[in-house]
Amino acid sequence: MEYKFRDIEKKWQQQWKDKKVYSVPNDSSKPKYYVLDMFPYPSGAGLHVGHPLGYIASDIYARYKRLKGFNVLHPMGYDAFGLPAEQYAIEHGIHPAVSTENNINTFRRQLDNIGFCFDWDREVRTCDPSYYKWTQWIFLQLFNSYYNRSTQKAESITQLIKEFETNGSANEQRSTANSFTAQEWKSFDEATKQNILMDYRLAYCGYGEVNWCEALGTVLANDEVVNGVSERGGHPVVKKKLRQWYLRITEYADRLLEGLERIEFSEAMKEMQSNWIGKSYGAEIDFAIKGFNDKLRVYTTRPDTIFGVDFMVVAPEHELVDKIKSGSQVAAVDEYVTYVKSRSERERMAEKKITGCFTGAYAVNPFDGREIPIWISEYVLAGYGTGAIMAVPCGDERDFKFAKHFNIPITNIIGAAFNGEEANATKDAILENSGFLNGMVMREAIEVVNNKIEEMGIGKKKVNYKMRDAAFSRQRYWGEPFPIQWKNGTAWPLPETELPLLLPEVDSYSPGPEGEGPLANIPEWVAKELETNTMPGYAGSSWYFLRYMDPHNDKEFCSRKVSDYWGQVDLYIGGTEHAVGHLLYSRMWTKALYDLGYIGHDEPYKKLVNQGMIQGSSRFVYRLKLDIMSEEQIALDKLPQIFVSKVVVDEWNIGFKSEDLIDKVKRILSLHLSHDNFKFKIEGFSSFHVDVNMVDGIELDINAFRGWKPEFENATFIFDDYRIDTILLKSGNNSEGFVVGEENDKMGTKYSTGTEVEKMSKSKFNTVNPDDLVNKYGADTFRMYEMFLGPVEMSKPWDTKGIEGVHRFLKKLWRLFYDDLKGKVWNEEKANDAEWKALYKGLKKIEEDTERFSFNTGVSTFMILVNELSDLKCHKKEVLEKLLIALTPYAPHIAEELWSLLGNSGTVLDAAYPAIETKYLVESSKEYPISINGKMRTTINIALDAAQPEVEQIVLANDVVQKWLEGKAPKKIIFVKGKMVNVVI
RNA sequence: GCCCAGAUGGCGGAACUGGUAGACGCGUCAGACUCAAAAUCUGGUAUUCGCAAGGAUGUGCAGGUUCGAUUCCUGUUCUGGGCACCA
Question: CATH assignment of A280-464?
């Protein structure tokens, strides 16, 4: 009886589906456990082997927790709004809903193949009106709320209105611009009131810059802009200000930081988030500008260095630039500003080249009256701080390089701590050349300066955040419409009863006028004065984990009772690429919903595990580049493309066997040209991607390659051993071409490809489809192999070859139960101590590995255990069935099949996880490694309870130790009980 | 440029708290079974010197701490991820 994985997997998947074994109740006496995968976008390319990695890991853990007696929620759904579907619609005229639906179906079919334990009754799709109704509803809650800074939480906007009616803006001042008394508030007209409230709402409307492409008439995403031009068509892209919605996430900055201390994210992840939030303590200082009444306000974290300021750098888009540019600098400034407009923020920050332009204006140092030139440069961004910095070249590397580049004299305020070669960012130097700060340690001077500027009224201490409010609108079609109506320039929320505001049908997916989204093309939509922007991709994904709990509720986004039962996601698995986007936004939404009393927890994810990326292992072939000269007419296009193996390419490049290659090329050419009247020169090789599915290991399947594209039909190959293979030889005298290496049959005729590890993508022809592997080896093998590749958190290249080993393991496991010839071999005999020991040693490690998400070592422990049981010829049911339960999370199908064949009733999915009988694991002695000076030389078996004097005696008596001692006494003997012995000579 | 992570045999990786580097698997070599192949099984396989016994070297690179470092510290190189409209 052999292991017929296809039948087995199909059978059990059907039974599990029929019996609804993965259906999860919302109330249970069992403790709850919530395992979540990051929301997938159903892309048109379908799944490749990299996608399911995290799903398999979470599936194993979810199944493991279930066996351990938990009520496990493990849902799946689709983040179905997004740019790719819209782009596809523009190009092919297919409605995004249609292509998305198709993609989802493919996605689902592929997932089902792998045997996941998702409760599909809880599936959600963000593009489904029954889902986005609640996305819109939450948006309205955010719109109708403000952040009360004294209570440090979101509260209803009506609360704020009451506050204004009683106290005016006194307690809730946001900017100096809107300061008013209660009386004044009451006298304001509605539009003014609404304008003021907009400065407080958690979801608010403002103006922001976008990548505007005039030629395409549309706004582009950052990754659609390459080197300042559009990816499609190469048209120029400039910054354009557009009305945009924002989420006031900055108000949550401190709580987002504080919350990190209460959740189990990796330190790296927490660091990335806190760097993104970028809290810094500094000061805002106003500098007078010579000849103007305006002040230049800078933000600095180092007010102590104020006497070292040698120039100012202002963002090129700073509002003062136009005003203060002067004289001969006007033209230069304008030119520079135009240049910067064409640059993306990314390019500006990554630029190594130092650029900038003097404005012609001077600021005045408030303490010593020194005149400081004001420059503009792209490395200062308008959105951060005040958009202007005071540059201290002796203390800041970037300022230093800037000063050097533009020959700006550098003032040294830290004496010997500055060597003139590079800036020194120390806070511990003693200040010099610093007026009233002279002799002070910098660290202490910070507070002194802060007090001084506040006293002088030219500045104040300021906590700053690098994080900006999140842009929450897109000029796109395929997203959630905003439930907002504009009346005379004022935004009004639609009543909740009118939700969902359905996404209308459009004739064309192209952009609307003036950079507006496609919705602006719909007369009825515009007539109703509805908002024409749509929400961004992260809207739906910021709260989906809550909807899974209560997916069919049409009264609420999620009932409080249900969210109180499930609470936080206990385990969240997904990639680091979401580190600062999705993870921060969903944390903010959770906090807002918590503040408003809709849920009972303020951090969505208790523990986060980051999965690494599976990279593609690309394969390359090398086409010969020839320069052929002949006196006769040659039809060059009739010549076949010649592909040279990697081995030959490498040898050519180091000048080895060059004559052999030239010979072969000559041979090929004369065969095809039917004469020898030509000369040629080998100019090199051009490499290009070949589909990995046509390559076994590194060996190219010649016939598959010839059939790949018409131009390769007649391809000629030069193999590793310099044999040649051309269509002419095939049809004619086959042996003729095989000259070199003919005698060496073992080398064969192999074409070795080149390899490189790259991102897995269709365009690189290195994607591997899980369907093919599941079909060939089964889901259980596929699942275990994905895990066996390496640690979940780590990125690693895919290599299909290794899957055989895991498949062999499952067959070997099967043979513990059933032999191909003998049939049933399992029995009901009593197990002996050696068998129990092997089992429990393995199960103990497997449990530990599963608990710490070390699934790769878990799989290898299964292999060791099965190897040991095979060696022990153990076919005993009482041992094997415990193994099966432990295997269930990893390979559920084979486990269920064997479980039922052993005569068990009921599913193995709900069996009790085996407890470890530690009595079989007790050891009395250990094979101690004996080191001499830290180098392992031998091992000695010593009783585990032996104490140091006894051990020393045994060790010193050992021949090997004696040899190394050469009669001398050891200086020291280090003995670590249960670990090792080190003899120091 | 800034932030984060990683680097160990031919390959994926193991070594969990500073204590036997290379578990497990792939590949490969040799052998068994077979008319043959597949499947399966057995054994070898970091490099290097040596017939062997046994040495030497070895965890990206350069230093340091320690009786002992893949593990800790400093510096450095390369690779991957993120940098706010891909999701």
Answer: 3.90.740.10
Q: Is the CB of A448 under 7 A from strand B?
A: no
How much of chain A is in helix, strand and coil states, percent to nearest 5? 40, 20, 35
CA–chain centroid gap for A259, Å, is 21
Q: Under DSSP, is residue A113 helix (H, G, I), strand (E, B) or coil?
A: helix
**Fold equal for A280-464 and A776-920:** no
pLDDT digits (tens, 9 = 90+) for A812-839: 999 999 987 788 899 999 999 999 999 9
pLDDT of residue A729: 62
- For the domain covering A776-920, report its CATH number: 1.10.730.10
Positions on chain B within 7 A of a protein C-beta? 1-6, 11-16, 19-21, 23-27, 39-42, 55-56, 67-69, 79-87
Nearest to A83 by CA among A517, A471, A499, A513: A517
A392 residue type, one letter: V
Whole-angstrom CA distances from A52 to A108, A828, A886 are 12, 38, 22
| Residue A520 per-residue DSSP state | G
A357 forms bridges with which residues in the sheet?
Answer: A376
Nearest alpha-carbon partner for A706 in A685, A727, A728, A687? A727
Distance CA(A78)–CA(A59), nearest Å, equals: 17
Average pLDDT over residues A107-132: 95
Give me chain A's average pLDDT, please.
89
- Cis preceding-peptide flag for A791 (omega within 30 of 0): no
Count of other CB atoms within 10 angstroms of residue A413: 27
Tell me what pLDDT residue A558 has.
96
The answer to whether strand B lies under 7 Å from the CB of residue A466 is yes
Q: Which CATH architecture has domain A923-984?
A: Roll (3.10)
Cβ < 7 Å from strand B, A residues 664-693: none
